Amino acid sequence: MNALKQRIRFKPVRVATLLLVLMMLSPLPLSLPKALAAEPVDENLLELLSKTVTEADSFEDKFDARVWLMDMSSRLERLSPDPEQRLNLLRMVHHEASRAKLQPELVLALIQVESRFDRFAVSHAGAQGLMQVMPFWKKEIGRPDDNLTDIPTNLRYGCTILAYYLKKEKGNLIRGLARYNGSLGKTWYPERVMDAWYGHWYVKKS
Q1: Each residue of 93-124: pLDDT tens digit?
Q2: Half-sphere exposure of 24 (CA within 13 A, CB side)
Q3: In terms of DSSP H, where are the helices of the chain?
Q4: How far is CA 168 from CA 71, 163, 176, in A?
Q5: Is the pLDDT of residue 24 over 60?
Q6: CB-side exposure of 130: number of CA atoms within 13 Å?
Q7: Confidence class of residue 205 from pLDDT cuts 50, 70 and 90?
Q8: Which comes out higher in pLDDT, residue 57 or 24?
Q9: What is the mean pLDDT of residues 123-139?
């Protein structure tokens, strides 16, 4: 048992190195996408969706993008009532999750549990943003000025870290999610995320 514990011991340097390489290869946007218009306009959800689909680059085709975005948008409406912000967020989540080879719906479930989609959320331990990323990671990878309340930045950190832990645990969701939360050996956090995933965000694959 002691040997097993030694093998699975948390090693922040490895994750930090992975984050640094990914950040260098794919520079992050400096700010959130600007609103489509400075003043309210008479624009329906279909038009917003059309624009979002055009900008989406992580789907196999535009039909898949339209179906997924419409489906997830209806599920997210209660927590994010503005349709423009909602579609932009979903596009970014899908992009970063796909980039990290994660299921976007799992990432949405994790965000629901971590922050309830509040980009300015801060935990009692100091974790920040949608995916509640700990600020020490910025120092570890030499990017102290990164803003973890910036949505693309937070998603890049969070998805990279989650993907690393899931790979470390050979795809075991319980252990991978527990590592993400810093509660390895306990199941309360993975159970909350998986309840949100299967209870609200899960999409049956054809």
Answers
A1: 999 999 999 999 999 999 999 999 999 999 99
A2: 8
A3: 2-7, 12-25, 45-55, 62-76, 83-99, 104-115, 136-140, 151-168, 173-181, 188-196
A4: 31, 9, 7
A5: no
A6: 25
A7: confident
A8: 57
A9: 95
Other CB atoms within 10 Å distance of the CB of residue 32:
16
3-state secondary structure of 185: coil
**Dihedrals phi, psi of 83, to nearest 5 degrees:** -65, -35
Q: Domains in the chain, ordered, with CATH?
A: 11-22+45-201 (1.10.530)
R_g over Cα of the chain? 17
pTM flag (> 0.85) = no
User: Does residue 47 surpass a pLDDT of 50?
Assistant: yes
Closest to 132 (Cα-Cα) out of 167, 182, 81: 182
Q: Does residue 53 contact residue 69 with C-beta atoms inside 8 Å? A: yes
**Joined tokens for residue 16:** 């930090």
Length of the chain equals 206
At residue 128, φ and ψ (nearest 5 deg) are -125, 150
Which residues on adjacent β-strands are paired with residue 128? Answer: 122, 133
The residue behind tokens 């090693």 is 11
Which position has the higher pLDDT, 21 or 132? 132
128: helix, coil or strand? strand
Q: Which amino acid is at 189?
A: Y
Give 41's DSSP letter: -
3-state secondary structure 77-117: CCCCCCHHHHHHHHHHHHHHHHHCCCCHHHHHHHHHHHHCC
